[in-house]
Amino acid sequence: MSLFENPEYRWRETFLVLFQDRQRPSTDAFRKTMERLGDRYEIDTVVENDQSQLESLTLLAPADNAAMDISFVEGEEVAEQLEELRRQISEDDVMPGEEEKMAMLDQCNVRFDILHFEHVQDFLGEEDDEFMDPGGLLIVAETISALCQGVAVDPQSGTFV
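Now predict its structure.
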């Protein structure tokens, strides 16, 4: 079940991890990698395909007052996103050391979407954002990027993670 369907969670942002399809991890490898992050994260719902590869996973981060839906995406949607990112990320905006990440985009053809949600159960009706710690999203994006030998991107700002 998507966190969008859970009234206790409110979507905040989406990060992408772009990589080559041949680097797609098995569900078991993905799960073990997430478990290595420690008890700060709890794996909830896991869906895999017939080849035992991850299709989607819900990751809860109670200490951060957050959760993440992680979904595999392939096909035309990825090609369009890559084209948009290339237009959005100017060579002048690439920070020192990020040139390799920019070059890696040319080889990417699949991605994981990481949808970040704030847990609002205890704070329903309040608009105060100070309760959610976004640090967990950065940790998860970097971890998945390393697992897939890919590139983590914040598509809203057009920056690498």
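The first helix runs from residue 27 to 35.
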